[in-house]
Amino acid sequence: MDTAELFRWVLENLNYWVVTLFMAIESSFIPFPSEVVVPPAAWKAMADDSLNIFLVIVFATIGADLGALVNYGLSRWLGRPIVYKFANSRLGHMCLIDEEKVKNAEEYFRRHGAASTFFGRLVPAVRQLISIPAGLSGMKIAPFLLYTTLGAGLWNTVLALIGYGIYRYTDLKTTEDVYLLASTYSHEIGYAILIIVAAVIGVLIYKGLKK
After folding, report:
1. From residue 93, how far is each of 27, 77, 83, 115 by CA, in Å?
2. What spatial distance separates the first Cα and last Cα of the chain, rounded to whole Å?
3. Using an 8 Å Cβ cutoff, are 37 and 60 in contact?
4. What is the pLDDT of residues 135-189, one digit of tens each?
């Protein structure tokens, strides 16, 4: 089964189990776009009664947590040398991972601390890898899961709102069309949400320091 056939199968068989499974895959080191899953599932939830848009977000976030735990566990148990060896291997490159991406994720984690687990879930190309430096640094699993759930939940809400908007304001009739349109704008919207969240947190920190 090639990539196009896999995407088509997912889009034709959307249910809570499929959402959870493929969001877990998306959140791990295996490359799979979340735009194939959440916006079409949210659109489908509005188009018929087979899904509920709020449960789509919940199960997508559960899947993201499961995938993040895979990266976290592997990087924590295997250690830095093996992670970098995998990143430099042919299999790693097939998974769209290389040494530079892992270094960028580590640097992002060092600059922003534990909160980078939250913010990293909103950044394309960092979202799937931010769990690796969290595991390498030995971050405690409770805060890791908390920040991952919050970040993934926010991102999945954004994707679900894209699906809702497509249903509400377009005449698209298939999940495949929804995926194609959602993938066009999701990164830009994700960056906008990240800027807004960072600005709000910055204001709160400023007010706290001022007091």
Report:
1. 17, 21, 13, 28
2. 60
3. yes
4. 877 788 898 999 999 999 988 998 999 999 999 998 888 888 898 888 877 767 7
Residue 116 near residue 101 (C-beta atoms within 8 A): no
- Give, in degrees to the nearest 5, the angle at Cα 34 between 32 and 37: 105
Residue 38 to residue 172: CA distance in whole angstroms: 16
Q: Which of 144, 177, 181, 174 minimizes the C-alpha distance to 159?
A: 181
Under 8 Å between Cβ of 158 and 193: yes
Say which residues have a Cβ less than 8 Å from residue 127's Cβ, sequence separation at least 6. 27, 120, 121, 155
The answer to whether the pTM exceeds 0.90 is: no
Two tokens at 143? Answer: 């805060």
Q: How far is residue 10's CA from residue 38's CA, in Å, rounded to a whole number? A: 11
Residue 182 corresponds to which amino acid?
A
Q: Let me know how long the chain is.
A: 211
Continuous segment of H or E residues that includes residue 74: helix 53-78
CA atoms of 98 and 90, how far apart (whole Å)? 9
Give the separation between CA 143 and CA 211, rounded to whole angstroms.
27
